[in-house]
Amino acid sequence: MIYFVGAGPGDVDLITVKGRRILEAADIVIYAGSLVWEEHLKFCKSDFQKYNSASMTLEQVISVMVSEQNSDKIVVRLHTGDPSIYGAIREQMDELDKHHMEYSIIPGVSSFTASAAAIKKEFTLPNVSQTVIITRMEGRTPVPPEEDLEKLASHKCSMAIFLSVQDIENVVAKLIKGYGSSDVPVAVVYKATWPEQKIVMGRLGNIAEKVKAEGIGNFSQILVGYFIEGEYERSLLYHPGFTHAFRKGVK
To answer: Given 3-state DSSP classes, what are the helix, strand and coil percentages for the chain, each rounded to the nearest 5?
Structure first.
């Protein structure tokens, strides 16, 4: 059986209990070595085989999986964060489907939620934002024109931007145009939950300078929006005057 397992953002304890149990039972682990902390592999049994996919192609990864097709071995494809976000798992699953191989996906904690936790903020606040946009800046991987960063920022909701800090100046330029202000709060979280985690707080007008001063050029989340700082309304859910199925509101 093949399992796609989300390893979480970094901290080895942020993998799910189910993910950890499957990892402990794995005979073969193909892990994203450039992103997944190798401390995860210390939970594997002593005789497991490991493959670092950082130096592998899709074809090579699938070849390892297919070679075990007729065995009872457990194969774990260990992805960083949650594999459903920028995990490139669809192309792997399509190839496995061609070989009529069974697989399962175990979700994980994404770096965008880990980053919000690191700065102790909530993406969705009443009368501030009820929407989170997860996106990235175009680079060698293109982005559909309809999803240009400036257009997305025009919604003025909370944003979590992956894989883009290396182009922070262009990111900022597009966001300023979209939000219509350079005074929007921003947090850049480098390697959320890792021992070397760094948090840089600022505004669109100064965040690029701050990020460069810290020497940050990769492995970062860019969080943008008024959820980071500012006024908000109290939630109705726990308001004494709000009635719902489990509680009668009082005046």
So the answer is: 30, 20, 45
Q: Which two tokens stand for residue 78?
A: 């260990």
The pLDDT, as a whole number, for residue 237 is 73
SS3 221: strand
Q: How many Å apart are CA 176 and CA 160, to the nearest integer?
A: 15
Give 3's contacts (C-beta < 8 A, 6+ positions apart).
22, 26, 74, 75, 76, 77, 103, 104, 105, 106
Residues 6+ apart with CB under 8 A from 235: 126
Q: What confidence tens digit (pLDDT) does each residue in 63-93 have?
A: 999 987 668 899 999 999 999 999 999 999 9
- Those residues whose C-beta lies under 8 Å from the C-beta of residue 239, and which sit 6 or more positions away, are 249
Domain annotation for the chain: domains and CATH numbers: 2-106 (3.40.1010.10), 111-224 (3.30.950.10)
CB neighbourhood size of 186 (10 A): 27
Q: Which tokens is 109 given?
A: 């904690």
